[in-house]
Amino acid sequence: MPAESIRVAAIDLGTNSFHMVVVEESPGKGIVEIDRVKDMICIGRGSISTKMLDDRAMREGVATLKKFLVLATQRGVEPQNVIAFATSAIREALNRDLFIEMVRKETGLRVKVISGKEEAQFIYYGVRNAGRLGETPDLLFDIGGGSVEFIIACCDEVHLLESRKIGVARMLERFVTTDPISPQELKLLEQFCAAELYSSAEKSKRLGVSRGIASSGTALNIARMIRSGSDADQSGGLNQSGFTREEFERFYRSVIHLDSSARRKLTGLDEKRVDLIVPGIILIDTIFRVFGLQEVVVSESALREGMVVHYVSGLRGRGEGDGRLDIRRQSVVELGYRCNWHRPHSLQVARLSVMLFDQLQPLHGLKPHYRELLEYAALLHNIGEFISIAAHHKHSQYIIMNADLRGFAPAEVEIIGNVARYHRKNPPSAKHPLYAQLKPSHQRAVDVLSGILRVANGLERGHRQNVQGISCTIGEQEIVLDAATKYEPDIELWAAESLKPWLEEVLGRTIRIEARVQ
Q1: Which residues, 6+ apart, have CB-to-CB distance to 416 below 8 Å?
Q2: Which burial class, exposed, middle or buried, applies to 407 when counting CB atoms under 10 A from its CB (0-12, 13-18, 19+)?
Q3: End-to-end alpha-carbon separation of the chain, Å?
Q4: pLDDT by residue (tens digit) across 26-58?
Q5: Cβ burial, residue 436 (10 Å; 0-12/13-18/19+)
Q6: What is the pTM of this model?
Q7: Which residues contact 180 (CB under 8 A, 6 or more apart)?
Q8: Beta bridge partners of 242
């Protein structure tokens, strides 16, 4: 069983596009993305009705796969660690064996055709690897060209895995002949999709599902377009961001009656999705209504990433269920390693931070959710030293907010970045743009968490893990912080004294720090 790091390339041969993701996996760092590439060759064009892949599409597919394999080799992937799965269009084509043999002869790549249920299973692994599923079930759906996969799952159980033949390319070919789409065709498409979704929706309602998690290019493109039409920050990735039912309905009404030339001018729309976006938004509108969803969150991880999780789990000798890591924590640790962090120091600052959070909770009143964000900010507070020591707190914020941390909503990343930014030097200020743009409740959280982090960082100033424990006594005017240490804590007391004023201001108490050597 391999213990060293391995690189894997996973290729998804979809109806609309071929995708490849290259990752490195190691026992210490988890799965880190190295590269990704896609080519929208539309191998399924015309095949939905004919059940035949056309010659030109097959040749283009082989040419694309050759380029993918060159890139994988250049990225250090061994040939045996390149995996490729084919989905709906190839799965249903009568001449699929001809194409698969063509690929094998010309590239050496052995493509596995997977069933709809297997596809849903891989998508589940991939989405779970990029975000945290809740205690109550969510509806996961992946909109492909030929099919849409539906999964109902929570953090510890899968209730439904299924695939429906209502992909956007299939629906476009079958129902849409007018531009803009006519009311009659729109109605037919809505009715067809609703009928396909009825049994799944009934199960979803019994389980109390109210949130959807959407993956695939169609969902990501729609989320990008909705964001482009709002006042939201346009920078950063889309993972774990999303839109409410009301936001989507406004977007739907603004787009559905446009013709192709008008759609082509829309900000954020991929040129190759100008026509496909029509059945895409009709499908999502139907999902909102039939399933009774209130919001949809998007996942940038799906089938390909699930393929990697499944493959690596096999190499490491564990089941996918055994690999159910805390995705958020894993993502933070990966970033720390990539920035050459001082791990013992960061772990100690995080440990002291959560101790202080817990004992000061009667004063600050923040919910446990913020404890987790404080811990991650503490783990990453010094990663800016990877760029330079000077102003490393600002570099830490920049890295955190641009690192595409998996499993976090954009607002959570903003809080983590701001807390890390204020672990030293000046405290939060309305003059700082990235702090000023936070909503008031998040500013309050950053104020408290950064104050705690500053004191914890001071108590680890010597980078020697001297403080073993902290006990806080909260009085009407004063907080007494008693630190148990291994050695004389002169450097720690000096640093913590200089960093405590901001927390004193936030909590409205003076802080007296005492120490005793155990």
Answers
A1: 373, 376, 377, 380, 400, 405, 408
A2: buried
A3: 44
A4: 876 777 889 999 998 888 887 777 899 999 999
A5: exposed
A6: 0.71
A7: 256, 257, 258, 259, 278
A8: 297
